[in-house]
Amino acid sequence: MKHARFALVVAVGLGVGVCARDAQAQSACNSGAKVLEAIWGRWGERIKAKACKSSEECLANTQKREELLREMVAFWNEQSQGSWATIGPRPLLDGGALNDGKVIAGGGRLFVSQAPLDADRWEIVVTKQGGGAADVSFSTSDGKSCLPQRTVTFDKDDKPGTKKTLSVDKATGMLGVVKVDARGSNAFDYKFTFQRK
After folding, report:
1. Domain extent for 8
2. CA–CA separation, 24 vs 40, rounded Å?
3. 49 pLDDT exceeds 80?
4. Which of 42, 60, 91, 107 has the most beta carbons within 10 angstroms of its beta carbon?
5. pLDDT, tens digit, for every residue of 77-108?
6. Does the pLDDT value for residue 2 go beyond 70?
7. pLDDT above 50 (res 180)
């Protein structure tokens, strides 16, 4: 019973949602059950390494709990291998490299440049690959504040292959941030490039 409660806490805390339809859609080697099994196995290894006798003991210790949660998020991201299930921001790839993913219904995905941008003008070309409606926005940040720049909207009626462009100015020395927000009850599949203009 203790393990079942912990699995539920970890699943909810990490934003893991497994449903039969999603599990069927995934390949056998990447199924939700396999990921949960891997997470559970890693959790057991990590609580032993922290010298805890039980999950509850580690979760009751603030320092151990925070360390474990960071380790488990990193492990989850490693297991998801950059797929839509990655927790936290993804690196914003530039120079024509492809940034892509799938945002589940009502969810969002953040891409962040790994260093300040080295040019003033940038162009983002977003292609809808499937799903419903979404907003895609670009902002800049100096590490303290976020300055919204531009947003494009995809409607649920936009067909796969629909492209929309964001042009950005005055970005030199700022971090670039692209956010993809699914709207409504459908997921949104997308890809985009981020290039100097």
Report:
1. 2-80
2. 21
3. yes
4. 42
5. 777 666 666 667 788 889 989 999 888 877 88
6. no
7. yes
- Contacting residues for 159 by C-beta, under 8 A, at least 6 apart: 128
Q: Please determine, for residue 159, whether its predicted confidence score (pLDDT) is greater than 90.
A: yes
Amino acid at 115: A
Instruction: Say how far apart CA 174 and CA 152 lie, in whole Å.
Output: 21
Tokens 């580690």: give the residue: 58
Tell me the C-alpha distance between 172 and 140, whole Å.
Answer: 9
Q: CB of 58 within 8 A of CB of 50? A: yes
161 Cβ contact partners less than 8 Å away, ≥ 6 residues apart: 127, 128, 129
Let me know whether 122 and 151 are in one domain: yes
- Residue 92 identity: L
- Whether residues 52 and 101 share a domain: the answer is no
Question: In this structure, are 67 and 10 located in the same domain?
Answer: yes
| Structure tokens, 85 | 């299930």
Q: In the 8-state DSSP scheme, what is residue 156?
A: T
Q: Give the distance from CA 176 to its chain's centroid.
A: 16
What does 25-50 look like in DSSP terms, one character per residue? HS-GGG-HHHHHHHHHHHHHHHHHHT
Q: Cα-atom radius of gyration of the chain, to the nearest Å?
A: 19
pLDDT for 154 equals 97
